[in-house]
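Example 3.2
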Amino acid sequence: MPGFAKINVQTNRYLLKRISVLYGIKHVFFLTLFLLAGYFTRAQNFFLREDSLLTLLKTQYTALSTNRILIVSEIISHRLPDEPIFDSLKNLLIQESEDSRNRNFICMTYSQISKIYLNYYVRPDFYEQGKPYADKCLQVANESGLDGYKVSAYLLYARYFLNIAENQKALGYNNQAISLASSIGSDSLLCQSYSSISVTWNALANKLSEFQALLDARNFAEKSKIHLLNLQSLDELGNFYESVNDYEKAKDYYTICENEAQEWNESAYVFTSLRALGRTHMHQKNEKLGIFYYDKATRYGDSLGIGNLKLQIYLDLLNYYFNTSDPIKGIAYMNQHPALMEFIRKFGVEYQVNKLYAVVESSKNKFDSALYFLNLALPYEYSQKGNYPEKYNFADQLSEVYRGMHKYPEEYKTLLLANRFADSSENIYYQRDVMLNLDSVSYLLGDYKLSQQYLSRYNVYRDSIESLSKQKDLLSVEIQNANKRAEQQKKDEEDRKRTRNNIEYLGITAVIATVFIILVVFGVFKISPAIIRAMGFFAFIFLFEFIVLLLDDQIQVITHGEPWKVLTVKIFIISLLLPLHHWLEKKMTHYLTYKAHMIKSKIFAKKA
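Structure, written as C-alpha cells:
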C-alpha cells in the first residue's frame, strides 16, 4: 500500500478547484473562463516543457513503468482530447499497460486517462468520455483486490457526478472513498478523499462541512509527511478563505504554500501560489500588488520554459477587467494578447467572446449590436447539458438587452426561461433576482395582478436570504471555533508527544544507569574480564548514542534539516565524543577488571 499511496499522490496533485470563488460575479464570462482551468489542472507530476517530457520518454523511460505512465499522461494533458496526438498517446499507453498484464499499471493508466477527461468539466463532450475509463479502473481493481485504486475510482465517479450536477451521488461516492480509505489505513488516500468531498460540500453550499473536510484533509496530509499533499491542503484552505472573502487568511495560506514549495522545489505550487496571491490582491481592489504577483508568477513560469502558464494569468486579468474594472479595458487586454484568443478558439468556446462584445455594446447603449452578438452565442449556451448557472446568467443578460430595446414581451419570455434555470441551479440568489425582474416587466406589460404575485415570491426569497446572512455570521463564528479547536488539538498532540518522549528518555536513562550498576557489581564480584569488557563496550555505546539522540532535535533546528549540514554537525560531535568514549571505556574496564574486586576483599578483611 505505501507504493500505491505514493503513486496516487502523484496522480492527484490537483483536484477540482473550489467553484465558490466564483460567487458574486458580475458577468457570466468569468464563470466559463475559470472553468477552462480544467485545461490546465493536469497531474503536474513532471512540471516540464513538452519537448523535455518527450526526451525523457525516449531516453530514460522507454519501458513501461510508473514514471512512463505519468509522463505520457502529462503530455496528453497538454493537448485537447480532439487532437490526433492525444488519441495516439492515449492508445499507446493503454496498449502497453494491457500487454504488461500488470494490474497496477492497468488501473493507473485508466485512472489517469479518466482524470484528464473529467477535468474538462465545461465540456460535456469531453468529460462524458472519462467515465468509461473510471469504470474500467474500478472493474480491474475489484477483480484484482486493489483497494487503493477502488478509492481512486470512487473519487473519479464523484468528480463525474459533480460535472453533471448530481451532487448527492457525488457525495455518496466520496463517502465510499473515505470509508474504504479508512479501512486501508492510508493517510494519503484519506487526505485526497476528504479533499474531494470538500468540493462536493461546496457544490451543496454547505460551507461548514466543506471547511471541516478541508481541516481533516490537512490533518491527514501532515500525518502522511508527503510534501505534495501538504502543499495541496495549504492551497485548498487558501481557496476556501478566498471563497468566503477572508482574503487576509487566504493570503496567509498562499504565502506558506509558496515558501514551502520553494523549500521543497515543487515548481507547480510555487506558480499556483504566486498566481493566487495576485488574484487575492485583485479581489481586494489592490491592483498594483495584484499585478506585481501576476508578473512574478509570469516570470517564474517563463523560467520553467512552460509557455502556456501565461494563459492562466491572462484569463485571471481578463476576468478582472470584465467583472471588476472596465469591459473596454478587457477587450483591449484581449486584443493585446492574441495567444489568449487563440486558446479560446482552440478550446471551442469562442462563443463566450460574443458575450463580452455584447457587454461592451450594452455599456454604450447599442442594444441592437449587443443582441446580434448574444444571438450568435445563444445556440451554444442553451445546448449545454446542465451548467444551469451559466444558462441563467446568459438569459439574464439577454433580458437586460431586450429591456434596453423596450421589447418587454421578449424580455418576459426570456425571464421565464431564466427562472427555469434558476430553479434548476437551486441558487436562491438567482431565484430572488429573477422574481424581481419578472415583477418589474409584468408591471410594464400592465399585468398588475401577476406583478404582485412575483413581488410576493420575491419577498419570500429575500427573507430567506436575510436568514442566510445571519447564518453566514454564525458560520464565521463556527469557522473561528473550528480553527481554535484544530489549533488546540494540534497543541494537545504536541504535548502528548512531548510527555511520551520525556517518559521514554527517563526510561532510557534508567536502563543506562542499571547497566552501569550491573557493571560495578560484576567488577566487585570478580566476574570474567571478557564479560566485563563486552558489557562495558555495549554500555558506553548505549550512553554516547543516547547523548547524540538528545542533541538530535537541536541539530535539526540549527541545520533546518538539510542533510549535508546534519552530516557535518554529527561528524563534528562524533569526532569529539569518540576519543572520550574510548578513553572512558578503557579506564572503567581496567578499573572493574583489576581493582574493583579488591574493594570486596578490603571490606571483608576489616570485618574479620
